[in-house]
Amino acid sequence: MISEGLSKPAAPVELPTGFSCHVGNIGMKDDTDDVMVLTADRLAAAAGVFTKSLFAGASVHLSQANVADGRAQAVVVVSKNANVATGEQGNTDAANLARRVGELVGCQPDQVLVGSTGVIGVYYPEGKVDAYFDRLVAAPEAALASRDATAAAAAIMTTDTHPKTASAAAGAATVVGIAKGSGMIEPDMATMISVITTDAEIAPDRLDAMLRRVCDVTFNALSVDTDTSTSDMVVMLANGAAGPVDEAELEAALGAVSGDLTRQLAFDGEGAETLIMVTVNGARDDAQAKLVAKAIVNSPLVKTAVHGRDPNWGRVAMAVGKCSDETDIHPDKVVIRFGTQEVYPTPATPEALAELEAYLASDEVLISVDLGVTSGGGGSFTVYGCDLTDQYVRINADYTT
Q1: Confidence check: pLDDT of 299 > 80
Q2: Which residues 6+ apart lie within 8 Å of 324 measured at CB?
């Protein structure tokens, strides 16, 4: 079940040894924090996974180029402005931001990864970035004195209701992640923005492969509203301060952190009241299981049924049936369950249906489907999403106004 604290402000979490951060207000929109700079005490192994959107922003393109050699020392994220569809000026602004962060941290501009999230098609306010960093560069030690990951997570929020952090141990090392994301979440890489840090020592190519494996079953298994952002990225820095650790332990810790953040993102979907987990097994392979699970969790009718506490398994069957290219799926072999209660093909009793209505009022709801394509295991996949409420419509109807 979802932990009691997921819908509440996160408790303070410290960054791993050798990392520090700065948060503040550049003036992108209002008087809340809208910039976060995170830095390592040395050049770190780095990896990143980025959106495949054709409208990817200037920050995404710059960060892809800067992380290509597997090394970085700092990450900066600006919220309230996506710097997307801003042409050459946007490219210039992203590069200038990296340059100014490099001055503050004491590294080269191409060792800075840049994230930007918020309204599309709006330029950074003229002069404000330079004026802000002029002040910081005058006293860099004071500017980068914090290790508060929770404050860093709060500074990158847009429509999130609370900061999202997670941490786990890996031998002598620690893995700490922050994330933002509430709407426009359907991954075609990772989804939203997440910055993950560790003081473990690992080679850049090993880190890159590990991050991609973990993203595939966590962030890439998340969907709030089927919309892929232009600004998505998950980046990870490993500064090696704690020395080498067992890579299996490190991957398990990274998986725990990424999985925790994924659940928090799903539960904080815009207007959401319920976290929906969909598990599909008995598939031909994991890819088929993921395809069907995404069809279910993305269905507006399934989402509204959960919101309305209606155990209408017909909507789940409908979503499975939409996967019409999967000709090895046969309805007479499919089994559908809400929680542990089978609802198809064996119908639930009236008493069981009444219990299911209460179950659907939980913070977390599990829908499981056995496709029956294979027996004794086969492909399986779990995805994460949320219900669809009238508040989601209101939030997005008023987003820029």
Answers
A1: yes
A2: none
